[in-house]
Amino acid sequence: MAAQTIGYPTFSGPAVPAPPVAMTTGNTMQAMYDAEAGGTDFWMDRLLARPGNDPAGTWLMSRGRALFMKTHTPSVLGFGGQVAYWESISNQAAFTVTAGSGTWTEQVNSRWQAPSHWKSTHTNGSLRLLQTKFMSHNNVAVDNLAFTNTGTASQTVALRVTSPYATTVTGAELTGSRAVKNNLTTLYPRLSGDGFTAASGALTRNVTIAAGATVTVKVQMGFVANEIPESLTEYNAYRNAAAQDVFGAHVRAYNLWWAQNLPYIDVPEPAIKKEIYYRWWLMRFNHLDANMPRHFEFPISVEGSLGYNNAIVLTQPMHIDDLKYLRNPAWSYGDWLSVGKVSNGGRFVDNPGDPENWSNSYTQYIAEAAWRSYQIHGGQPAVASKLAQYAEGDVKGQLSYYDRDNNGLIEYDWGALTGNDADAVSFHWRAGNLDRAESAYVYSGAVAAAEAYAATGNTAKAAEMTTIANRIKNAIQTVLWDNANGLIKHRHVATNALVPWKEINNYYPYAVGAMPNTDQYKQALRLFADPADYPIFPFFTANQRDKAAAAAAGQPGSNNFSTINSTVQFRLYSSVLRNYPNQWMSAEDYKKLLYWNTWAQYVNGNTQWPDANEFWADWNASSRTIQYRSWIHHNILGSSNFTVIEDVAGLRPRNDNQVELSPININWPNFAVNNLRYRNADLSIVWDDPADGVVKYAGIPQGYSIFINGTRVATIDRLARFVWNPDTGAVTFPSGSATVTYNQAYAGLQSPVQVRQTSTQMVNMFQKVGVNLNTGLTNRALGRLEESR
Predict the structure, then answer these.
(1) Mannosylglycerate hydrolase MGH1-like glycoside hydrolase domain: which residues (predicted)?
(2) pLDDT, tens digit (0-9, with 9 covering 90-100), for 300-314
């Protein structure tokens, strides 16, 4: 049998900027921020900066909680392109600035943008303009225009600012009223500038610039919404402040968010380290916190702000898996609260605020991911109870809707329902409904519901959901198992024939532990040893032998690869290497997947230009190039930071108050995950190999260690699976062994159900679904009212 021979990718690009301070076992991200808080130059901005002519496009990285640029035209002064408030308002600019006569030419090589702001240089004769623009958290678009006269005589420049959304003169401002797409809310835009006069639908003023002098002018536009009162407050504050003060306040506030929300993650491969932080930016950029009643009323991730731009259930669990490692639980809880509420107690469906994209119910493991988020952050029993109810509704709803022959398996007849579209080769074999291996996710949802009910003491409901889970698991193992070939196969319902054409989807049952771990069932994993079946990279959907057979039969479909595929492959390796050990899939294969997944994010492997396109196609194995990158840029069709934390660093979410580490050893000499928020405590995991004689983290003991609130509580001498009990300090080894070099007890570490979520944001979010976190009780009447809205 062939082996996976692809090897490792080669990265190019400039050196990845080093952090300003060394890692500590306290709060490294905060220490980094504090070291630079006196200025406006921050590590995250330097790390993710995009200078010059960006091959991924001219997209504006800066955005507000609901405001962003759907397209961005740098040659237009102001915010040219298509401004969006949750979605493009009317395919027009936010506002544009006309400055004097003649033509302003952008000097593209001088362009520089970071996550917090954009800078561009424009010239017009002897005038030079440095434009600095950004969007604030509460949806204020700010443009600082610094005009420099490089000539020998004074010049006067006439400035004119207009916006299609603010045309009514109100004192020195222009104001307006505009409904957003689908009439989800109404905006009340306000446009103003330093020293400008409002008249005839425009802001105007003259600026006189002495020879050799620079004059800075600030223009701001607030996209005010009644449901976000902070939008007006922030606009007024920015309007009344000086340009540099506004810029400084914004950049510091933007970068403080990283310090307050991110764990610090260190790995020895610079390209992977940068990609980790790029993905954190992606999660922030592709996030909507609009507080719109009925539709987008929770903080939620959206699958592609620059594309489909909706809370699409297919990818929501992948987002939750990453978002749960942000320190604020609202970022992960918002996703499952939103889908639970808009689904009205049934199968999970896309957010109805954007019916174009896609208004359906797809393959997803939201309940499973939601339960893991609860294992990390915890909350009152009422939180677990609400999660259990939503998970139960999804499981029963999917079976009711998709299990037409009542055999415990969902049936699809359309590849789009898997999220793989024409890549899903099994649908091309024979028309009609197929009993699907994706039923594994309904199984994992039932398991999550059972565990959530058990956490609240509802043993009857826990038993009911366990029975449903077992029924699905048994159906997978019997209806879909091809004993002759030793493989899981989808089944054609009408003819009862097993479908010979396969995808990586056939292995979802292994990813969720729905298969026995006997040699008989492990045999199915043999195909992952052969790149002719399932190459590590590209991470295609279809089995490549079967895709070739389909093409020969006149059904070529498509053969794309994307982060959604690497995500499910990470999940598969995570489960297989722990639960189904075999000779065909190894930690080395997982490591290659980790590296190639990172490489694909960078345009031509250049770490200067990360761009997580929706998908890629046309891999050239000879030149090792991706010849097609899709039209949706900086997308979150999938996730990967979770696997660094859970598989490389080894954190395994649990239901009790103990900490379990179970790393996949990829022979890295060091790594660290610092200051995760873990049940109201701060958890750090550090590995520094004591065998290589090199100290990687000064002042931190070598070995594999757990720290709670900065205090070391356990260290072993090698990478191995172990469990630390905070009540006794005991270290145990469920499998394997190592030498314990340090351990101690730590009082007060909580199990998930012991945690009390009390932040104003969390209280408000759960109030919307009828849960009072202040009392821990569920208002059933309010809950029913909210669910019906």
Answers:
(1) 323-534
(2) 999 999 999 999 999
For 438-493, the DSSP string reads THHHHHHHHHHHHHHHHHTT-HHHHHHHHHHHHHHHHHHHHHSEETTTTEE--EET
Token duo for residue 575: 């489960």
Please give the Cα distance from 34 to 775 (Å, whole number): 37
Domain boundary among the residues 643, 676, 703 is at 643
Same domain, 617 and 718: no
In a domain, 10, yes or no: no
Residue 129 confidence class, pLDDT cut points 50, 70, 90: very high
Which tens digit of pLDDT belongs to each residue from 468-493? 999 999 999 999 999 999 999 999 99
pTM over the 0.70 mark? yes
Take residue 476 and report the two structure tokens written for it: 């997978």
Sign of CA dihedral 509, 510, 511, 514: positive
> Among 390, 381, 383, 393, which residue's Cα sits nearest to residue 455?
381
Cβ–Cβ under 8 Å, residues 282 and 307: no
Quick one: which H or E segment has residue 519? helix 519-522
The answer to whether the beta carbons of residues 569 and 595 sit under 8 Å apart is no
With beta carbons less than 8 A apart as the criterion, state whether 543 and 533 touch.
yes
DSSP 8-state code for residue 648? I
Three-point CA angle 672, 674, 678, nearest 5°: 125
SS (H, E, C) 681-701: EEEEEEEECHHHCCCCCCCCC
Half-sphere exposure of 228 (CA within 13 A, CB side): 32
Average pLDDT score over residue span 225-245: 98
- Give the whole-angstrom CA distance, residue 464 versus residue 453: 10
Of 702, 736, 731, 700, the residue nearest 717 (C-alpha): 702
570's CB contacts (< 8 A; 6+ apart) are 590, 593, 594, 597, 640, 642, 643, 647
Considering the domain architecture, whether residues 630 and 737 belong to the same structural domain is answered as no
Judge whether 177 lies within some domain: yes
> Whole domain around residue 781: which residue ranges?
758-788
If DSSP codes are grouped into helix, strand and coil, which group holds residue 314?
coil
Q: CA-to-CA distance for 91 and 78, rounded, in angstroms?
A: 15
The answer to whether residues 769 and 787 touch, using CB atoms and an 8 Å cutoff, is yes
First to last CA, the chain: 57
Q: In terms of Cα–Cα distance, which of 140, 145, 124, 358 is closest to 230?
A: 140
In the chain, helix, strand, coil percent, each to 5?
35, 25, 45
639 and 665 both lie in a single domain? no
Distance CA 334, CA 349 (A): 15
**Angle of helix 316-323 versus helix 270-285 axis, rounded to 10:** 120
- What is the number of residues in the chain? 789
Residue 360 has pLDDT above 90, yes or no: no
Pairing of strands 670-678, 681-688: antiparallel
Is the domain of 300 the same as that of 426?
yes
